[in-house]
Amino acid sequence: MDMQNRTAFVTGAAGGIGREAAKAFAAAGATVYAADIAPGIPETEQALGLPGRIHALALDVRDEAAVSAMIDRIVDETGRLDYAFNNAGILLPTLEDEWDVASFQRCFDINVIGVLKCLKHELRVMTARGEGAIVNTSSIAGLVGLPGSVAYAGSKHAVIGMTKAAALQHAPAGIRVNAVCPGPTDTPMTAVSRERRGSGKPLGSVPLGRTADAAEIAAAAVWLCSDAASYVTGHALVVDGGFTTG
After folding, report:
1. Mean pLDDT computed over 96-100
2. Which of 14, 35, 177, 222 has its CA 20 to 30 A from that of 48?
3. Any idea which of 111-115, 186-190, 241-245 has the lowest mean pLDDT?
4. Residues with Cβ within 8 Å of residue 3, at least 6 apart in sequence
């Protein structure tokens, strides 16, 4: 995939799928703004192994003013925003938190409202240019029910609905909006899931016999943004090793 002279914005980029996506966009030639709230996020692009291509920045997706300012900064510095990967999200740390209203709200504030705020300002600048591609991170929990995931599954179902609505509304403007739905994946969030369930094993049985590497999910997200997926919009791409097939 040739992304030379293009610009990408990735949230939740300090680790896991977001970090791998930032690297993949950069490896394809894009200039990448990699944002995350996590303490200790690298302050320089060298930390992600591609000097000069990746700019690692701090951002709380719940702060709309900060989101808007960052999108404007990207356009000011590069003259464009071609791709956005709205990947920031959380899984509540305990099963009890799923039924706590404040914790439930926090999950939605990041997983849903955070995506909304990013979408709003990404679409604002992409509409002005008449082109762009956006991918939102949902989950297999956005397609099927998973035990002990009331808040998380609810939030990820919402992401798919938002994705489809935005895709329909903005297709005439030349903007594609899709979602990626990871299955069991080796990330810090997977570790939280295993701890919640008191099991060292992945959730359920994956027909391919293993969990995904974060880079495999990132590759799917980058493909959805690329010209190779130029006729794909409003789609929720499942990358789960066959988990939801049977």
Report:
1. 93
2. 177
3. 186-190
4. 25, 28, 29, 30, 82, 83, 226
Tokens of 233: 């919009």
Q: Which of 33, 83, 152, 231 is catalytic?
A: 152
Structural domains of the chain ordered from first start: 7-239 (3.40.50.720)
Which H helix or E strand runs over 117?
A: helix 114-129
CA atoms within 13 A on the CB side of 58: 7
231 is catalytic: no
What's the rounded mean pLDDT across residues 27-54?
77
Q: What's the sign of the alpha-carbon dihedral 191, 195, 196, 202?
A: positive
Residue 181 is inside which H or E element, if any?
A: strand 175-182
150-170 and 101-108 helices cross at what angle (nearest 10)? 30
Contacts of 231 (CB under 8 A, 6+ apart): none
Q: What percent of the chain has pLDDT over 70?
A: 89
